[in-house]
Amino acid sequence: MDLSIIGSGYVGLVTGACFADVGHNVVCVDNDARKVESLQQGKVPIYEPGLEEIVHRNVSAQRLRFTSSIKEGVDHGQVVFIAVPTPQDADGSVDLSFIEKVAETIKRYNKHGAEFDVVSNPEFLREGCAVADLMQPDRIVIGAQSERAIDLMKKVYEPFMAPILVTDINSAELIKHAANSFLALKISYINAVSAICDASGADVEKVADGIGMDRRIGRNFLNAGIGYGGSCFPKDIAAFIIISEQLGVPFNLLKEVQRINAEQKERFLKVVRDALWVLRDKKIAVWGLTFKPDTDDIRSSVAIDLVADILREGAQVSAYDPKGMDKAREIKAISGARLTSSALEAAENAEALIIATEWTEFCNVDLNTLREKMHTPMVFDGRNIFDPETMRKLGFQYTSIGRPLAKAI
């Protein structure tokens, strides 16, 4: 099929590339001419495992091309996907102005009054595994009002061999908000449990294992840490709260999810402060700046917030991230941090190390070398990547979240 994707960010680029990889002819549109030129040259502007290879393969096969012309996209596509940003307004609601502008532009090119359908087709892509999520989806949701549109969308997704749920448009849109909010709720739930584990001496990972073995619950998203971030969960929860209030049915449970998430970072910072007494002039290393591993996205990253908070208290920060360094350099709030070329370089002569993102590279570091490089072998593990007993035996002053042999968080 001939498909067009308007918006070539995380969602649009991954979607377009994967659609091309299963045999569709795809045109990706973006209003950033420099991005389009870069993509045409084979340079992928985001890090997403497997994406660059797929883009190169399908550009070479002439199934994928890029343009800055919406008209070209509209002329090409039997189905036109809108994947432009929907940023969060100050009150937490979603700014739909970019979608409206694209819709108005598409309307201008429909000079002959061609019949069309509007479909809500929410994506469920997780950064860091977006390619796998699209190629092997749990489900495909199609919200439509006509059989013609439903049949056309089923044809688009036929190569993916996934369950298809057909709904009305309102239900399809609400599914996305409800799904992300529920996942965030699971994270905040286990983080609240981690505080009880610290107080009682229980092990939050064993508790999570026991909970997750219940097939009704599952183990995913039950990892205690310093909270969720990124471009989806915070925005979708805030939007769902606003939507529910506008409908006269306040969703107060989600406000508690937000509160727990914010409180988890503050609780972690308090432990760091208590251990170091004062942060001013302390040399602190931070491993991880992206909001999660396997992405270069630092939007709404708890790690970035931590660095900014520590800098404001006068600490000297050295930070490293495997993929997020270029984007981190653009963040004014952490401009006072020294960004290093490796994890061990960041830790050199540090009086404390904070692990803020659970990159595999950090899990595999030589711990003896780390201890030797640090001025004081004090580690605050905000993602529970190391074993507390192992760290103690190696001579580290080790603090994690909700686990025995760890200072209470």
Can you offer a commentary on this structure?
This protein is an alpha/beta fold and 409 residues long. Helix content is 45%, strand content 12%. The protein has 2 domains: 2-167, 3-Layer(aba) Sandwich (Rossmann fold), CATH 3.40.50.720; 255-399, Rossmann fold. It has helices at 10-21, 33-40, 51-60, 70-76, 97-108, 130-135, 147-157, 169-200, 204-212, 233-246, 252-276, 302-312, 325-328, 343-347, 360-363, 367-373, 388-393; strands spanning 2-6, 25-29, 64-67, 79-82, 140-143, 164-167, 283-287, 316-320, 338-339, 352-355, 378-381, 397-399. The strands form 3 sheets. The chain has a 6-stranded parallel β-sheet with strand order 9-8-7-10-11-12. A 4-stranded parallel β-sheet has the order 3-2-1-4, with helices on both faces. The longest helix is centred in the middle third of the chain and has 32 residues, at 169-200. The chain starts with a strand and ends in a 10-residue tail after the last strand. The mean pLDDT is 95.
What would you say about this model in short?
With 409 residues, the protein is of the alpha/beta class.
What name goes with the CATH superfamily of the largest domain?
Answer: NAD(P)-binding Rossmann-like Domain
Q: What is the element string, with H for helices and E for strands?
A: EHEHHEHEHHEHEHHHHEHEHEHEHHEHE
Whole-angstrom Rg: 23 Å
Q: Could you tell me the number of beta strands?
A: 12
Please give the CATH architecture of the largest domain.
Answer: 3-Layer(aba) Sandwich
By CATH reckoning, the class of the largest domain would read Alpha Beta
In which range does the helix fraction lie?
40-55%
Instruction: Quote the average pLDDT.
Output: 95
The strand line-up of the biggest sheet is: 9-8-7-10-11-12
Instruction: Provide the CATH topology of the largest domain.
Output: Rossmann fold
Cα-to-Cα separation, first versus last residue:
54 Å
Low-confidence spans: none
Q: Main sheet?
A: 6 strands, parallel
